[in-house]
Amino acid sequence: MALAIELALYCTRTSGKRLQCSSRAFPVTNVSASRKARVAFCFQEANLSLLTESREESPPTESIQELSDLQLLWRAVKLPIYSVALIPLSVGSATAFLESGAFDGGQYSLLLVSSVLVITWLNLSNDAFDADTGVDKNKKESVVNITGSQRGVLLASVACLAFGCAGLLRAALVASDIRVASLLAAAISCGYIYQCPPFRLSYKGLGEPLCFLAFGPFATTAFYLSQSHKAILPLTPTLWGASALVGITTTLILLCSHFHQIEDDKAVGKISPLVRLGTENGSKVVTFLVTGLYTGLCALAALKALPLPCAALCLLTLPVGKMVVDFVSSNHHDKKKIFLAKYFCVRLHIAFGSALVLGMLLRAWR
After folding, report:
1. C-alpha span between 14 and 9 (Å, rounded)
2. How far is 158 from 122, CA to CA, in rounded Å?
3. CB 118 within 8 A of CB 165
4. For residues 38 and 26, is the Cβ–Cβ distance under 8 A?
5. Dmax of the chain from CA atoms?
6. Domain ranges of the chain
7. Nearest to 217 by CA among 188, 196, 187
8. What's the predicted TM-score (pTM) here?
9. What is the pLDDT of residues 175-220, one digit of tens each?
């Protein structure tokens, strides 16, 4: 009876259709075979048949991994990336508060809105100009690919830049410090030559150095000076140290955004650092930068260029830094998984920058 049940299972598919039992593979005339061996043989052939059919009937990989409209919109908006506007502004303002006790909420709000508009210009114009080279042809979350209008995206980006620059100019006039306007102009210029023709320096592998300068020394210092309240603030080692650390965490985001698009970059001649290095060496660079971030933090604290509360709180973010290193080291070769690396870097950027801000506030209030 048990043998009959097992053979019935073998000859019946889960969908209700019949399988063809193989008399050549298992001749029923072989009466000398033991009952247990016959059952095992039946199961072996049944499993093989079912496995083959499941492969044939399974939907293609692309349909399984198809992104919903909501997911595409979320990726296109890149909301977490706007932390690169918030963190330099907050670190610069907190440093000014530490050095002078000055904080202008109106200036901070104006600079935040203006910075968000400038970052929107960067994102939109990047998609618009990349559409010219074809590097984003497989990038489903590209705003140009979603809207189908390169010209419309470019015009929207120019409008954002115009309003953003107007706000930044207004903040510079309030600060009455020519250095504010000069540094902000330098930061925006870095963004322009990074992606806009005829420069497109990101295609020559210079995007990361430009990112470091724009968001680190240039923007963070400008935001620091914007809180001057008509008193000229000095450029201190605390400011230089904090701005360099902000520059490193911002650069990590850009570097890790290239891992999943190496093939598309190569196809159009875009020589990003990861095209030159490959994913394995690129993962080592990420490890080096994260290690350098915390080593630099400790060195600045030891030299008394950063307050001890800053160092202590930033060291609490070590698990986030380790998470970035471990994820990239383990998944640098996996094009699908490594897409998330830049979002892990955003977490580090926010956590580390927030720790810097809180540390400076604690020191100022002490």
Report:
1. 9
2. 10
3. yes
4. yes
5. 103
6. 80-365
7. 187
8. 0.79
9. 988 999 999 999 999 999 999 999 999 999 999 999 999 999 999 9
